[in-house]
Amino acid sequence: MLKNVFGIAGTALNAQTIRMNTTASNLANAGAVSGTEEEAYRAKRPVFRALVEQADLNAGFNNLGGVKVNEIVDTIDPVRQVHDPGNPEANEDGFIWLSNVNEVTEMVEMVAASRSFQNNVEVVNTAKQLVMRTLDITKA
Amino acid sequence: MKLFENPFGIHEQAVSVRNKRMELIAANIANADTPHFKARDLDFKKILAASDPAPMAATNVRHFATGETENPSGLVYRVPYNSSVDGNTVEIAVEQAQYGQAAADYQATLQFLESRMSGIRKSLRGE
Question: Cα(A31)–Cα(B102) distance, rounded to whole angstroms?
Fold first, then answer.
């Protein structure tokens, strides 16, 4: 019954929260510097996947049609190399590597996640009202 | 109307179909950001045609099928107005509008059920 709507919207609320968390983490690490190119911080992005397979049911997700975070990937944008010999992180040639976080992109991502979250809250609200009305049938 | 054999008529099934549609659209909204997700919907007309106890039958080889009895589950993919790069066909504004309509349809069915219920109650009381 309508309780599946709550479950489905719940998975989406969860996924969008994770998306907002990764954005927060990216913004927090925007200024991180590193002494090697490999260790430089790369912005993280969650990849969503729909819960449509039997394997999802077996894995304990009982909300078919919902969404889950399948994996969190690093963005492929290049990290910036800067010559800054005074930096304690600098290597022997005086280079440091900055993160590849683009603050503007992260802000857009944050707003998009928050709007998607609101959409799903609205879904829950409407479903709740309908459930209450269904319960009121007996009073008719 | 057979009041006590089938007191709620078609609305009993209708409420579960409405419910299923709400679920599907909720799933579409939940997957608005999922790559390659295809939005789905229920075709109420097809389900209604499939639940017809005496559908139009092709009794002669030269009859054409009506097409209404095909796909009795009524599950259809939504055709997007604009395609997106990641293969997702959910358009959030469309889904919100459809969800609102589905909620209104659900309430309409509830209204029918309520009036049936109060009718039965009145007849039992002999008012």
Answer: 47
